[in-house]
Design goal:
Blueprint: E1 2-7, H1 18-33, E2 38-45, H2 56-63, E3 67-70, H3 75-83, E4 97-100, E5 113-118, H4 122-125, H5 132-148, E6 151-154, H6 157-165, E7 174-176, H7 194-201, E8 207-211, H8 220-228, H9 232-237, E9 239-243, H10 251-262, E10 267-269, H11 278-284, E11 287-290, H12 299-306, E12 311-314, H13 317-323, E13 328-330, H14 334-345, H15 348-362, H16 367-380
Parallel strand pairs: 1-2, 1-4, 2-3, 4-5, 5-6, 6-7, 8-9, 8-11, 9-10, 11-12, 12-13
Helix pairs in contact: 1-16, 8-10, 8-14, 12-15
């Protein structure tokens, strides 16, 4: 039986992120499909063992003696040493594979094979859309890790094409997997109803939904302006609800929204929401809209499709890969998005059709399929 160790810091981070979600789902999938072929454990830089393991998979691994805690150096300091390429190797337990889920590889003493997940190449394709510190780190460490890795794990065919085209990675070094929806988080019974959104977020009307971090890469200026160009009758009927925390370089978006709100446009920003309200936002939405410039996958679109929310999406390759024939595809322009929203909001038959198509599309993604593709590659390489 081969041994796999997964670097677990993202599983134990205080604020869950998309990378945390991906790693958690992938770890569960790997353990589910490979119990008789792959011995899976975890390792973690936990300085002086100050933190207790909290993730379900690291907790169980600790019980069976398969969680290694490296306690001699804080991870933030070690990451800086990695950035400057002067980090001492870590003594990690012997295994056949080490899996690093967040763009970078730690140096280790043993000559174990190493796999790294690369979630997107926005820092190379559109560096202006990546926060400066993060971009500088990725330019140094992610590029170095892509060269050193024995296997690169890509989260979409689109990211794979980017790895080949601008990352100069040989195709045979890449395995492509997808990111399914965690269906347990989006059960219909988790919809708490309209009153929940009214009481907590002051949402009183039917609405067009967008969900994610409010930052330049998401191209929300286009969505806001597209909503404001809708006929008055539709604006009177529907709010535009932007769900998520404010990100970096969001000043121009704040100014635009403030200006539009002052003129009476019903645009609502919720800020950070409780995780247990997420399903309600999707299930109560009349439509979902995504106008992003660039994504590695497009998780929010898949979540909307899973919940049966008819969706308007800008026609870029990665979103096509996720949405297939289950979205209303539009040009990435104010006029294109506005026209698409107009068509969708005034055509109930189309909304019902896209809702059913979306649920069928989302059901084709699963953690079992995703994990099996990766496990087969790890066992055969």
């Amino acid at each position: 039986m081969k041994k796999l160790l997964i670097e677990a810091s993202v599983l134990e981070q205080d604020r869950p992120s998309g990378v945390n979600y991906f790693t958690d789902g992938l770890a569960g999938g790997i353990e589910a499909v490979s119990s008789d072929t792959l011995d899976t454990g975890y390792f973690w830089l936990n300085f002086l063992r100050r933190k207790k393991a909290r993730n379900q998979y690291t907790v169980e691994a600790e019980k069976r003696g398969r969680l290694q805690q490296i306690s001699l150096i804080p991870q933030k300091i070690y990451a800086k040493l990695v950035y400057f390429n002067i980090a001492p190797p870590l003594w990690v337990e012997k295994s056949d594979w080490l899996l690093f889920p967040n763009f970078y590889i730690w140096p280790t003493f043993r000559s174990t094979k190493k796999a790294v997940i690369i979630h997107d190449l926005c820092f190379l394709r559109y560096p202006e859309y990546v926060e400066d510190k993060n971009r500088q780190f990725l330019e140094q460490v992610a590029i170095r890790s892509m060269k050193e890795a024995d296997l690169i794990i890509s989260n979409s065919e689109f990211t794979t094409s980017e790895l080949i085209a601008i990352g100069n990675v040989p195709e045979e070094k890449i395995v492509t997997i997808n990111i399914p929806v965690d269906t347990k988080e989006f059960l219909p019974e988790l919809d708490k109803g309209k009153k929940r959104l009214t009481d907590r977020y002051n949402i009183h009307k039917p609405y067009i939904l967008w969900l994610g971090n409010l930052e330049p890469r998401k191209n929300l200026n286009t969505l806001v302006n597209a909503y404001c160009q809708l006929p008055e009758s539709l604006r009177d009927t529907y709010s535009l609800v932007l769900v998520g925390k404010w990100g970096w370089k969001a000043e121009s978006l704040r100014e635009l929204i403030d200006k539009r709100q002052s003129k009476g446009f019903d645009i609502i920003t919720t800020g950070h929401i409780d995780q247990d309200d997420k399903a309600t936002f999707y299930y109560q939405a009349t439509a979902f809209a995504i106008t992003t410039h660039y994504e590695g996958f497009g998780m929010q679109l898949l979540e909307a499709l899973h919940c049966g929310v008819p969706s308007v999406a800008v026609d870029i390759p990665v979103l096509r890969e996720v949405g297939g024939d289950s979205c209303l595809w539009v040009e990435k322009s104010v006029e294109g998005v506005s026209q698409g929203l107009n068509i969708l909001l005034t055509n109930e038959t189309m909304r019902k059709d896209l809702s059913e198509r979306g649920k069928r599309r989302a059901s084709t993604f699963s953690w079992e399929k995703t994990a099996r593709v990766l496990v087969d590659r790890l066992l055969n390489d």
